[in-house]
Amino acid sequence: MIEVLTTTDSQKLLHQLNTLLEQEARCQPKVYCLRLIESAHNNGLRMTARLRDFEVKDRLSLTQFFGFYTETFFLAVNLLDRFLSKMKVQPKHLGGVGLSCFYLAVKSIEEERNVPSRFTVSNLMRMEKIVLEKVCWKVKFLQLYYSLIQESLPFERKNNLNFERLEAQLKACHCRIIFSKAKPPVLALSVTALEIQAQKCVELTEGVECLQKHSKTNGRDLTSWQELVYKCLTEYASNKCSKPNVQKVKWIVSRSTSWQLTHSYYRITHLLTIPEMVP
Q1: Euclidean distance between CA atoms 48 and 100, whole angstroms
Q2: DSSP-derived secondary structure letter, 240
Q3: How is residue 200 annotated by DSSP?
Q4: Taking a C-beta distance cutoff of 8 angstroms, is the pair 197, 276 a contact?
Q5: Which SS3 state, helix, strand or coil, does residue 235 take?
Q6: Which segment of the chain is annotated as a signal peptide (predicted)?
Q7: Nearest to 183 by CA among 136, 231, 142, 230
């Protein structure tokens, strides 16, 4: 598939993909540091996976409520995870770090918008400077993979894959620290491949295989992460799973507009219907 993409738009997409693949290593959180966070016990003094996941869900709530781009959320999570893998952050400072990462992502991707904050401007700017000193960023693999697959399809079949659904599934994965250990292209391709299997879009399978080879993704790694993605989405769709905190956002915003978050919450839940694993 990659070899036959000769249009100008296709070549631009491939160039962007190759650029991101080259930057991947320096934009990846330190896996061994994430493992330390996963193994930490909650004593009020150390960062834990549970605290990190709650913070990410709060940022997902804000992203959904204010209608920010999905890429803004992904970038905020990437910044947060990479900062946590470089610095020892006390739980009491996590909110400030998380909001600073979110604010940086908004400024980088969104147009001029007001970002809600319970922190003072000086505190937020100070934390923003610290975050910038520790991390750099660029994550956009899902969009590129989707666009390249779409470029290879005839017009009448371009609606076979729902990008909004793919975004919703990737957002759910980002709410769990385990997926921060996955390389961004591998995780994006895992979500895409799993959805293609679920929708029984046989004609797109070759496209995934070509993208896998182009990205130099190990087949065993791809299968392993697909299994974890499937497990995550299955648990996320269950009633027992902790979803983004609706009540907390109601406290931040006025009651007259809180229905917007409820609407977006049910919308993303609807998009996260369990994909069927193909043996």
Answers
A1: 19
A2: T
A3: T
A4: yes
A5: helix
A6: none
A7: 142
Query: Which residue is listed with tokens 């007001």?
Result: 114
Distance, in Å, from the CA atom of 250 to the CA atom of 42, rounded to the nearest integer, reads 27
Whole-model pTM? 0.70
C-alpha 244: how far from chain center: 14
* Closest to 55 measured CA to CA, from 21, 15, 101: 101
Give the Å distances, CA to CA, from 250 to 61, 101, 219, 220, 239.
10, 22, 44, 43, 21
Dihedral (CA of 78, 79, 80, 85) sign: positive
Residue 229 has pLDDT above 90, yes or no: yes
Which H helix or E strand runs over 210? helix 205-214
Question: What's phi and psi for 88, nearest 5 deg?
Answer: -85, 110
C-alpha distances in Å from residue 20, one per residue of 29, 82, 141, 266 = 15, 17, 8, 33
Cα-Cα-Cα-Cα dihedral sign, residues 71, 18, 33, 103: negative
47 touches 85 (CB < 8 A): no
**Cα gap 27→135, rounded to integer Å:** 8
Each residue's pLDDT tens digit, 43-90: 777 899 999 999 999 999 888 888 888 888 998 999 999 889 988 899
Q: How far apart are CA 52 and CA 91, in angstroms?
A: 9
Written as one letter, the residue type at 14 is L
Which range (6-15, 189-198, 220-229) has the least confidence?
A: 6-15
- Whether the Cβ atoms of residue 207 and residue 152 lie closer than 8 Å to each other: yes
Instruction: Lowest mean pLDDT of 3-12, 138-147, 188-197, 209-218, name the range.
Output: 3-12
